[in-house]
């Protein structure tokens, strides 16, 4: 008798714990679902605003309302969540009217050692003026790839926030800069929260250094840029670059969502990296937080590891008041000048 009572008590306690856990999950999923509706492009704005409020209220009402017939109501709540998340999982990016700097998608053709990039960007940026998009077609000889630089652009007030770029250099002094961006529609600013809700397209920018570097340096105040030489052989860099080219063509043909977590400016590069370049376990939080990535890159022996990360950042930060690219005869000449002015004063 005593044992039976104890078993019943334990069973009741277990059910109570499971009920609490289930309720926490339903609350979390319903709130996430509301935000997913809010950021669901392709739906009318009024519907997204109303749905973002009504959906979690209805789901939580069905789940939390007391007896009678609570099992039926909870089944309906789970059904609504299931329907929403199936639709959420299969939805595709919506075409929009893009800002001029992102109006075209790069396309890459490889023929042996030679690569031709269509819609290679070389935009003109002047402080206080709108940027002028310039789209070119450029050819590069992959056998002349000489090295690469990792670029970190800290921003915001938190040390955790940064943007990551990659610049690959060739023997003729030219560079291909790669930046994984959230494609921006006209009339909308970048929203980091939207990146958690399958909202924007991921947009690989392939451009010159005088475009992507000066775009940031021409701002008021200018952004901080740090340029770190990467310690990898040209053949490893080439394998990595060819993966980036393939990804660029793939998302041109089949657009993908930008994800603040697993397909961002940082994680997209890590996902594409061959093991010979970098292998980062998923549980390393620095994989997900670009602002703390420098110590990760040092640990991977991608960049100089002879100094603490903070000191290394000061040494490789660009100095203020750099001359604009239009003061130089070529992109290659400006790139050389920029690298001669590292070591923030």
Protein described:
With 345 residues, the chain is of the alpha+beta class. It has 2 domains: 2-90, no CATH class; 100-339, no CATH class. The protein has helices spanning 2-38, 45-64, 70-90, 209-217, 234-253, 267-272, 293-299, 309-316, 331-339; strands spanning 107-111, 114-121, 135-141, 145-154, 162-170, 175-182, 202-207, 226-229. The protein has a 5-stranded antiparallel sheet, with helices on both faces. The chain has a 3-stranded antiparallel sheet with strand order 1-2-3, covered by helices on one side. A hairpin with a 2-residue loop joins strand 1 (107-111) and strand 2 (114-121). Helix 1 runs antiparallel to helix 2, helix 1 packs across helix 3 (70-90) and helix 2 (45-64) packs antiparallel against helix 3. The protein is elongated, with a radius of gyration of 25 Å. It starts with a helix and ends in a 6-residue tail after the last helix. The mean pLDDT is 91.
